[in-house]
Specification:
Nucleotidyltransferase, domain 5; alpha/beta; TREX1/2; 9 helices; 8 strands
Length: 301
Amino acid sequence: MTRRPLLLSTLVFLDLETTGLPSFSFKPEITELCMLAASRFAVEQPRTPIRVQNKLTLCFRPVRTMNSIASKISGLNIENLFHQKDFDNTAVTLIQNFLTRLDPPVCLLAHNGNRFDFPLLRAHILGICGPDYQLMDCKGSPILCADTLPMFMEFKSCLTSSSPKKILSDDSGVDSMNTSGETSQDTSNLPVSQSTPKKSTATSFHLGDVYTRVFGSGHANAHNAEGDCIAVMDIVQHIGIEAMDWLQTHYNDFNTIKLNFNLPEQKPSDPAVFPYQNQPVESKNKPVDDAAKKLEAIQID
């Protein structure tokens, strides 16, 4: 949807790593979050290094099941996240304080953000702070957001190679976790004739594929939240001033993004308590403990 033109000042590239993809029976949790902020005036200048950047990177220990495929892709698992905090009220405070320091209007950018990153982040925030909580900038205006997937599709002429390709209009945004529908129908086994066109290759708009088409090789630290943020920023900067013009009419209020699901409400946690400290620890002297309990019961009788 096209909005009234708004001169954005700060772009915040957002990426989340999670415990898996959302489904009817699975509600993913955030395991890593990165926000990389840069001035739009720096991003709109191609081939000029963006020296001034502000970053917030946080890792979280999930409280529920972690999908093995997601763990393999991101490199995050229960073991290396053992001593991390879960996504709690202190994380929301850090995010809000980070955004408050930025020159408004502030706009979050994420690849496939409308379907994944934005509703997932909102679900986490509202599960902790309640349904009325809103992310605001330093002037009390809502934090904005925009999805780079439709932007990249609109500017496909400067993001694709010169060979003819069919454009794929739907993209999961999660490169290796959902690749169904990436390519057109395979016709390699069909007879070739004058009425049978040669096989055409679908154009993928997965982040890694777009980056490779533009820069000739894959981006560093793929499926690392900060690495993916840098990759999106590089591509937006490659588009240049046209990307800024597009963003200024294709933004949304982050606080109105529709949720894909609701997470259970969480009570404010003690900043000094880590999730592993709340796990029940089985006694190494279980037989002795059981015997003691039986003896105590006999004495009471």
